[in-house]
Amino acid sequence: MTEKGCVVSLKDGKAKVEIIRNEMCRKCHACDMGSNNRMMIEVDAIDELKVGDNVLLEIKETSMLKATMIMYGIPLLFFFVGVFAGYAVAHIFGIDNFFQMIEAISGLLFTAISFIGIKYYSKKVINKEYKPVIKKI
User: How far is CA 100 from CA 23, 76, 94, 109, 112, in A?
Assistant: First the structure.
């Protein structure tokens, strides 16, 4: 996947690039909660880069798929595990009157734990595979 952007600043070997969201990105609203059509991305700078340069950023399609699975697949899996765990706990302790509420709360709790884990993991193990790279100036 490629995006066009403009370099806004350079500092310590990093470049901040402003990109205009494409149609697919605009519909997602995961970044900046859809506040505007522009988005800032920090990438590794290359030597001949200057502020104001128009650049072409690229991220591998496989990396996009992996990131999508991490952001949507893992929480969904945790939700189902939480629902089944809530079901098991409710039946083990004989709380048959409120088992659906316990399942729902447990599912949401597990989902929240997965998002916290993903956020922690993404800050600790930032992989260059998931970061865009400058391909053209």
Answer: 39, 18, 13, 14, 18
Sign of CA dihedral 47, 53, 59, 64: positive
User: Which comes out higher in pLDDT, residue 109 or 53?
Assistant: 109
Question: What is the rounded distance in angstroms from the CA atom of residue 105 to the CA atom of residue 78?
Answer: 12
**Residue 23, pLDDT score:** 65
Considering the entire predicted model, what is its pTM? 0.63
Distances (CA, A) of 86 to 32, 82, 90: 34, 6, 6
Pairing type for strands 54-58 and 2-11 reads: antiparallel
- The CA distance from 131 to 137, in Å, is 18
Query: In whole angstroms, what is the distance from residue 61 CA to residue 82 CA?
Result: 31
130 closest CA partner among 63, 33, 40, 32: 63
One-letter identity of residue 103: E
> Which sign does the torsion angle of CA 130, 2, 47, 39 carry?
negative
Res 13 pLDDT > 50: yes
Phi, psi angles (nearest 5°) of residue 62: -65, -35
